[in-house]
Structures are given as C-alpha cells and as structure tokens.
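Input set for joint prediction.
Command: fold jointly, output tokens.
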Amino acid sequence: MHWADAIAQELAGKKHVIATGITPSGPIHIGNMREVITGDLIYRAIKDAGGDATLVYIADNLDPLRKRYPFLGKEYEKYVGMPLCDIPCPCGECENYAEHFLKPFLKSLEKLDIHPIIYRSDELYTHGKFDEVIKIAIQSTERIAKILKETSGRDVPEGWSPFMPKCPFCGKLTTTRVLDFSDMVEFECECGEEGKVGIREGKLVWRVDWPARWKVLNVTVEPFGKDHAAAGGSYDTGARISREIYGYEPPHPVVYEWITLKGKPMSSSKGVSVTVEDMLKVVPPDILRYMIVRVKPEKHIDFDPQITLLQLVDEFEELDRGSREYELSHVELQADIPFRHMITVVQIAKNDDQIFEVLERSGYKVDRSDKRQVEAVLSLASNAREWVKMYAPERMKFEVKERVDVKFDEKEREGLRRLAELFEKREMDAKEVHDSIYRVANEIGMKPSKLFEAIYKVFLGKKYGPRAGWFLVSLPRNFVIQRLKESQEGNNES
Ligand SMILES: [Zn+2]
Ligand SMILES: [Zn+2]
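tokens >
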C-alpha cells in the first residue's frame, strides 16, 4: 500500500483539514515544497478513499523579518522586526515583501496541480479570526509559560507574553513588551514609545500561533519538517497548548525529512538552494511530484538535477500507468512523451513549430487543435531545453551538422549506403530503423557499434549521440536519405 493511502486509512471516518504553510521570508526552495506535496498526497489519498478533506496553505506573512539576509540590500536593516507583509518588496513590483516570494511559489503549485485554500496570516488576524484564541492566550500567559518551561526546559524571559503587539510608531513586532491587557493591549516598545493597541494589531508568538491556528482552522493533519518534531520542539509544545489551553485535539503529525541538494542541506540564506520555480523550469511537474511520491516522508531525499533527474525520469516512465505511484504523480497538464526523447527533439527542432513536426515523425502525433495538449508539450519541451542548457552532460548534447565533414572507410560507406536504400524503400518506425542498423552491420561483416559511430559522424560530426533509431526517424526522411548519400561522395578515401 502507498504510504499516503496508509495514512488515509489511519485517518478514515472523520472530516479532515490538512494544513501546510511557509514563512515567505526568502526564496522558497524545493525543500519547502516537500511539505505541500506531502499534504496534497494525503489529501488525494483521503479523497480517493471516499473521505472528506480540505487542503489549506497558510502563508505566514505576518512573521517578522528575523534579520537582513545576505540576499537583501543594506536598506533592509531597518525592516528587521517588522511583519513581512509590511515590508517593501525587493523588486519594487509586488504588493509587499512576502508576496514577492509567495507569488512564484503559488504559481508553481498550480503547475504541480496542487490547489489548496490559501490563507494569509495578516488577513486571518485583521479579519478577527484569531480574536478569541489571542484573548485566551493572553489570559493564559502563565499557564503557557509553564508548558513552555516543562517541554523545552527553559524559562521564558521576565515579562514574556504570547502576544507581540505591533508598535504603531516603529511598525515592529519584536521590540514590544506587553504591560497589561484588558480590552486593549498596553505595551512599551524599544523605540521609546508606549501605548495601547487592539488585539488585531499584533501576532501570537510562533509556538502559540501554531496550536491557535489548529483550532481556528480545524486542522486535523499537519505535515512538518523534522526540526519541529524534536522532543521539546514546537509540535510537542503545540500539542500541549492545544489540549490544555484551547481544549483542541492536536492534528495528526506527519514528519518529513529534508531534501538535500547534492548532499548539501538547502538553505536560502546560505545560497545553497534551488527555488521551486527554478526547478520547474527544468523538471516536469509530474517528475517533481514523483520524487516525493516514491519515498516515505521520513526518508531523506538527495537531489542532483543532473544525474538524479534522469534516473527519476527513467524510473517514472517505466511505471505501470495503472500504478498508484503513477496516479499520485499525475498532473493535469501532462504530455505523454518520454523526457529523454524530448531532450533529443529539442536539439533537432529549431523552433516550436518544428517540435511538433519532429514529434510527429518520431511517432508522437499531437492534436494541435487541443490547446491544453499543445501547452503541455511546449511546457515539456521548455523543460528539456532548459535541462540541456543547464545540466546535460556533454555526451547528451548534440547539434545536427550543416554538412558531412568526416572521412569514411569502405566498410562504413557500404553500411551507410545500404541504410540509405532502406530509407528510400519505405517509411520505418524507430524500432525498425534500430533493428535495420544491426542487420546491415551483420550483413556486411561490420561491428554494429562501428556502424552506429558512422551514423553519428554523418549527422552530428561525432562518434556518439542519442538512440539512433529514434534520432533518425525524428529527422525528415528525405534529409536522412540525402545525408546518408552524401557520405558516399567527396573527400572520403581513408
Ligand atoms: Zn517583488
Ligand atoms: Zn516601536
């Protein structure tokens, strides 16, 4: 049984809200993506089993900027401590800092065929959804402090409050101190000001915010990274606060392991990271889903866009189309063309139109009146093109030469001539061409590998290339015949 189905089975018989989320404080990398895909898989599994489920995604845009990250200019120093949604965006074109990083991520989710209900914390807070849980938290300050001490072993600082008022004078959350609370929160701030604000002007500290949102959004399943799962970590604390302060049974935890990039932990701040957006430029979305689908959440994944990707692609394409893994990886916009073949196609085609011609010659007819199909094919082609540009090993790159500029010996000429005749006689599919190459080589007493080399030399000017049968049928037939004949002429005595 697939792990997502096993979780769904465990959860059966109840209505579920699966919560995922991220603090959009920097580029959102593929490590973070694991959370949302994991949540989506559980969501799909519950639905497939006939259950009732909702997938939500909470953007923690009210979280304060912790520090000026290396990718931020000096001017960001002054925003440290302010909510991300109040800080200007780095490119100047987005609504705010949080949206700048959130927008491309949400777009990527669409491509991955993940459609959660999206909440932004600032909206939840300002629309009053948190009023009740904030009041309870402030009134339970001492009990929460005790839970924190018991779970983490550390005392909270003097004057600690679960609520961080936002100072109306300097706009910061992290510099205020709660002095008193009745209907309003009385505070003082490190900026020297003091005053009163309403409970919608501020935010609960993370360790309380998390269990509070479980109650507010009726969360019953929560995937989270292993950092939160440590003993005395935020899940432990959250579970106690949820039960003891809010009287709410904490959600079923699904702990997932990290995704590392070629062995290195991903970290936006250290620059070792690939954003989900960048990854989707190279990796087809179904393959990216498959990377998460194929292993249990508690298993670590190491990703190498060069080698791992091709292994994943091969493994995925060999999957039985009826298998659960295939089904769970499936995205709506999917082109049923092997990625390796597309890698060949994009290196032959000079433009988008030619992509369809090359595909058709090689046995993949695309209905060009079907806009979704066309979009899916072009999206896969764009993935392949980008992969070739960024990650393809030299061996896999090629370019069809303008003319034959290699010398051939008598045997090679004989083999190429016979192939030309076969191409003239009738149209063949890739497999037939492939078999013919072996047959011709055997007929004339030549090692097949030598004939393959000769073919690559005729077309690519080097001794290797993509799978010959599939490659040759991808080219216009007349061109293949013409080119094979050219190998017979001119400066080719050895
Ligand atoms: Zn921006
Ligand atoms: Zn202030």
